[in-house]
Design goal:
Proliferating Cell Nuclear Antigen, five-stranded antiparallel sheet, DNA Polymerase III, Chain A, domain 2
Amino acid sequence: MHLKLDDPRIFSNLIGVISELVTEVKIRVNSEGMSLTALDPANVAMVYFFIPHDLFSEFKVEKEEILGVNLENLKAIMRRCKLGSSLTMQRYDNLLKINIKDKIRRDFTLALIDVEGEDKEMPTWEFKSVIKMDAQDFVDAIEDCLVVGDACTFIAEPNKFIIESSNLNSARTEFSSDEVQIFSDSSSARFSLEYLSKFIKGAKVASKAEINFSDNHPMRINFPSGKVLLSFVLAPRGEPDD
């Protein structure tokens, strides 16, 4: 396996975002590209990313490779990439050799690990509500809710989308169909802000967010950036008196 990225920022950002949710993962590399699917330790959320092979300036894979890595260790190495750096990754037995090259060449070796658990696949569902919007607007709405509570409710109707949190205090952001793309009838679901606060860091990867949800059903948030995709799935949260 020999992979090279002339601009490793997208990969570095993906690793940084995902490491907020999971620590030990299996990164899959095959003829289509690089991908990851992982379930968080509490079995509440899933994360997925895909980088197609043609985004790599060099991509040589003779057979599918499964790379078990500790994301904190990989993230620490990725932080050494600077603007203008190139990144090369090669597998040798149970080692991942990483080369960062800018003005100088720096070599790192990351021990591959055995990651327990079955391989997961991102579920595919039909959703009652699909909202496409600016990623930063979504970030701001979630951060508003974080000021007042630990959970928020998504409410969608044909012409509006609302994110609100209500406890002793409350926060509410309403978007009209003039501001976001809404494909919806009427649906509502409540989710943990602890997880959403991690998901919104996907705005580092993409300028757009796609929110998919139905009544009291797991949601899926996509952060698409060209051919690169970062996705999260989150189980709904019950009402306080559940």
